[in-house]
Here is the input.
Amino acid sequence: MTEPRIAPLEPPYAPEIAAALAKMMPPGSSVEPLRLFRILAHNFMIGDRFRVLGSGILNKGSVDPLDREVVILRTTARCGSEYEWGVHVVAYARPLGFSEDQIVATVDRASDDPAFTARQALLVRLADALHEKAAVPDDLWRDIEKIWTAEQLIELLVTAGFYHIVSFLTNALRVEGEEWAERFPVRS
Here is the structure.
């Protein structure tokens, strides 16, 4: 691992930073604020807006959490953000009941892999299309609009975009992985 480009802030935090970091973590969390959040605290304005959108996606969205996590895992894996992928595997995917095979498949298997349900395969195709072309082909759009509402489709697109931002940050800043987070599977 190469050195992080911007070091995460360390305690003791200034009161306004402590308050902002507390808002970024789940209520009552006993885990130290994530390194990414402590790096974003260097720019209070960006960090605060980042928190609002991220929290909205994770806590207030209309998309089923299982669907949301397929998009997040695939997007962060395609971007090579082991940091964010690993945090989401532990904090969301496993608690939501993803199988080990589904988790591994999000990294580099095709959408037609048997680990994915038909619904998940559409989400993998969506994440892949957005990653590769920043667009959604008409045939895929026809398929996804049969399942998700207009509200949910917008949310899925924003989720993929937001996690591209997250991946850009974690990769460009070389954010060191959290000790408790997963690492990408070793390819056989």
In short: The chain is about 60% helix and 0% strand. The chain has two domains: 15-59, 65-172. Residues 65-172 form a domain with the AhpD-like fold (CATH 1.20.1290.10). The longest helix spans residues 150-172.
